[in-house]
Amino acid sequence: MNLALATLFGASAGLLQLAGALKTAPPLARLPFDLTAAALALLLPSLLLLAATRRWLVSPRLAMPMAGAGLLWFWLVVAGSWSASSLVLGQKLPEAVLLAPLMVAAGLLAGAEPVARRAMVAASLMIGVFLAGIIGWGALGGHALAVALDPEQARVHYQLAGLAMAGAAGLAAVRAVEARSLARIFWLAIVASLGLAALLPGGRTALVALLLGVALAPMLRLGLAGRRRAAALWGGLCLFAGLAFVLRLALNPEVAEGLRTLERLTGDAAGLDARRGLWAAALDWAGREAPFGLGTGGFTIAAGHGERRGLYPHNHALEVLAEGGLPGLVFWLMAFGGAVLAAARLARHAEPETVARIAALTLPVGLTVMVSTDLGNRMAWFALGLALSLGVAARPLPIRVPIRVPA
Fold first, then answer.
1. Entry pTM
2. Which of 16, 237, 364, 384 could in theory staple to 39 by disulfide, Cβ–Cβ 3.0 to 4.6 A?
3. Residues facing residue 56 across a β-bridge
4. Which helix (H) or strand (E) holds 352?
């Protein structure tokens, strides 16, 4: 019973964090139900039961990031009281202060409970491979994405699918360094397939995240296990492969033709210019409205974009500084910066295979929050919980059998 419960919880946690990528994929875009709601319906009861049937040991190192997260949620509600927005505020605030704590709790429990963690990792890996197959099939003419989805849906799908593939590639790379002989070849083929799929949709951040995850997660796995030479060798091979590919691309630019991600990476600066404009505007309004900011969701109106949530600052730190002011930035640094520091310290005493898998799933999201997504993105909060799970241990509750003493 406990095994089935933990497996259900881990699988539903993996599904919930990537439900956005799945439900925007062409084959699933017209499901008669909301995949996020279905994942939540599976997650909530299993989370409560799992929490009640385990003894949870929490490291004191988690005090600062957890306090920072709680203060940040509180401050976002307070800052909403002077926001000029109604539409963006109504969309973002429930996600940032109601769904976010649930996602942090899910990440904490899924990362700390061994059976749940294995189920979550397996679900994340399978979803990433599934999405890579969809993108590859579309590139071969299997379906017309432009017909299946509108342009905004397609953009969101490519971003989320890229994150899912980046996490799956990091997990597959970890399995590759753990496996032997033919199994290693299989996992390396999975990594190569995911990397090829990431070249097709146009997600530059996702491609960089994939490369970092493939390089760093296995290095952590090997280095923390005491195999420093093997870790250095893996890092050197990844660096050599990357430099060789860049050199090939520089000498033969036609290689990028048809690969939308490389085309955008080498010739399309519009996305970077747009982000620079949003970053500059966020800093400008943070200075004008110091020390308390524009109010939650108020940036797009102040920047002249109206109630368009998609034109947020594209950087978590700048977003919280512009909208939550200096208190918001301090609380965000306590939560996310504190989580990075705590995870780095806790990783030394955790199991290397656990650290590597959590790193594979959190590194892509960590990179993305600095160049995309807003504070309502559930993947960011789930990644925060996963990072903090290195400081949580799950133990079965002792079973007490009443003993009758004869009179």
1. 0.91
2. 16
3. 394
4. helix 352-368
